[in-house]
Structures are given as C-alpha cells and as structure tokens.
Write a structure and sequence with these properties.
With about 270 residues, the chain is of the alpha/beta class. Helices cover about 40% and strands about 20% of the residues. It has a single domain, classed as 2-enoyl-CoA Hydratase, Chain A, domain 1 (Alpha-Beta Complex). It contains 12 helices and 8 strands. Strands 1, 2, 3, 4, 5, 6, 7 and 8 form an 8-stranded mixed sheet that branches. β5 (about 145-155), α7 (about 155-160) and β6 form a beta-alpha-beta unit.
Length: about 270
C-alpha cells in the first residue's frame, strides 16, 4: 500500500516537477534498476524512433523486456526525440518488442514520460492513430505480465499506448491525464492566456494520489523532496522491491487468468455503480 505523503503538494507543484529538467531519465532508470541492458532498434517497417528506448535486460537474473519513452538530456537529444513524443515508428518498435517478449515468455516493464504522441505531419502521414490503437489492442491480449510506470508526464493516448499494464505505478511527482491542463483550460473555458491553468490542474485529478484513490493506478513510488533526480537511489530501491514481488505473483497466474484480470481491471475504470 502507498504511504501517506509526508508533505502535501498542490497539483500545480506536481505538474511542474513532472515536467522539470531534473526529472530522472529513461536511461538512468534502466541503469539503476536492471543489469546487462541490450538495446534493440527499429520497427522493421520504416525507421527507428529515438523517443522510445527498448531492449532486453536482466532483473534478479530473469530476462525482462524493457521499453521506455525518453525526453533526452541535452538540447540536441531533446530535439531528436521530439521532447519525448513518439512517432508511429516508436509505437511499432515497442509493439515488435512486446510481441517478441510474448514469444520468449519474458515479462514486460514499461516506463512512460511523454506529453503525448508526436503531432507533426510526418506522424500523421505514417499512421499515428493506427499505431496507438494497434498497441492498445495487442497489449490487452499479451500472454505475459506487463508492469507500467508513469515517471513524469503521462499524456493522453501517447502514454496509454505503453501503459496498459497488469499493474500501473506512478512516481509521486508525476501526472497522468487525457490532455494537458493548458489544453483543458483552452477547450473548456477558451482560456488563451493561461489564466485558469492552475484551476484546471486541480480539477483534472491527474496526480498519483488522485489516481490511486480512483483505482486507476496500483502503487505510488515515493520521491525525495527534490524529485526523482539521478541521485535518488531510494526510487530505484522501491521500484526493485515492487518489481521483485509483483513479477513473481503475476507469473503464478495462468495465461487465461492473466488476460482476464487485465480485462477486468480496465473494464472497471470509470464505473460509478
């Protein structure tokens, strides 16, 4: 069970931390949690999207498929990765790796930090909507355990396409929502100047605590007061502890039990009766 937060943060403070430049990167998470990570490239159809890192690693001696969105560290990396917004080739690469994991009976761990799928012309020309929808369809029926982490921004279908896990966990200073607070304020109130963004942030219930209470996520990974920076080894320790326990439990389930529990998990979201 998640611990009660020692210091209550506002939703706006959490959104700022989720977007902060000091947020832990995908490579730092992978290096801090797994051993012998071997990256695999390409979607075998079109190209290799740098916004998604994927490959095989060891966790306590068990082969794991690891997939992560990455915003990059330097300005050059951020531009090349579209600031963590994947192209269709990124989603197709991730699906290729997930199907490979299923073939070899490897659990899948995904890490998500994206404001959403890349909205540029190249993405639309290459079938962005279809690529996201295909991931949602295929992930719902994968025959291996999937554990997903939101470790920064979890924006819209671009995040959901990598987060349909048997369990979904969030770092404390992370957000998960259908659109940005700025987009919410603009659509709902025609707010073009950002005057009601803070109000929108509070109303959207996009923090880890809000989503845990709504039974949308399963665990909260607590961070230090400075956020999950590269020095925050406590974050890695918590993730390792939860992974060790939960991968083992998910692997005990039969294929039918695993898929049926995943189906029921998502069918229950949003039910009020």
């Amino acid at each position: 069970m998640p611990k009660i937060l020692k210091k209550k943060k506002t939703a706006s403070e959490i959104v700022a931390a989720a977007r902060g430049l000091k947020k832990v990167t995908a490579n730092e998470l992978i290096d801090g949690i797994f051993d012998d990570f071997f990256e695999l490239h390409g979607d075998r159809k079109y190209s290799d999207d740098e916004a998604i890192i994927g490959g095989i690693a060891l966790f306590n001696g068990i082969p794991i498929t690891v997939i992560a969105t990455d915003k990059g560290g330097t300005p050059e990396e951020r531009i090349a990765k579209h600031f963590g917004c994947p192209e269709p080739s990124g989603y197709r690469k991730s699906l290729r790796l997930m199907k490979q994991a299923e073939k070899f009976n490897r659990p899948i761990v995904t890490f998500v930090n994206t404001s959403g799928a890349y909205p540029g012309r190249s993405a639309e020309e290459n079938g962005q909507g279809e690529a996201i929808a295909r991931n949602l369809l295929e992930m719902s029926d994968l025959k291996v355990p999937i554990i997903s982490f939101i470790y920064g921004e979890g924006g819209s279908g671009g995040a959901l396409a990598l987060a349909c896990g048997d369990q979904v966990w969030m770092l404390e200073d992370s957000m998960y929502s259908i659109l940005s607070p700025e987009g919410f304020a603009s659509i709902l109130w025609k707010d073009q100047e950002g005057k009601r963004v803070q109000e929108a942030t509070s109303l959207m219930k996009l923090t880890a605590q809000d989503l845990y209470e709504a039974h949308i996520i399963d665990q909260i990974i607590h961070e230090d007061l400075k956020g999950a920076t590269v020095e925050s080894y406590e974050v890695y320790r918590q993730i390792k502890e939860y992974l060790k326990e939960n991968i083992k439990e998910l692997q005990k389930l039969s294929t039918n039990q695993l898929i049926n529990k995943r189906y029921e998990k998502y069918r229950k979201i949003g039910q009020v009766f």
